[in-house]
Amino acid sequence: MVAGGSKKRPDSGLESGVTGGGKEAKQHDHQFHGQPPPAELLDSESEEIELSTSEGEDSSWVSWFCGLRGNELLCKVDEDYIKDDFNLCGLQGQVPYYDYALDMILDNDSFSGEINGEELVEVEHAAELLYGLIHARFILTIKGLNSMHVKYKRADFGRCPRVFCTGQPCLPVGISDSPRNGLVKVFCPKCEDLYLPRCKYQSDMDGAYVGTTFPHLYLMTFPSIKPAKPAQCHVPRVFGFKLHKNSSR
Question: Which residues lie within the region annotated Disordered (predicted)?
Answer without folding.
Answer: 1-55
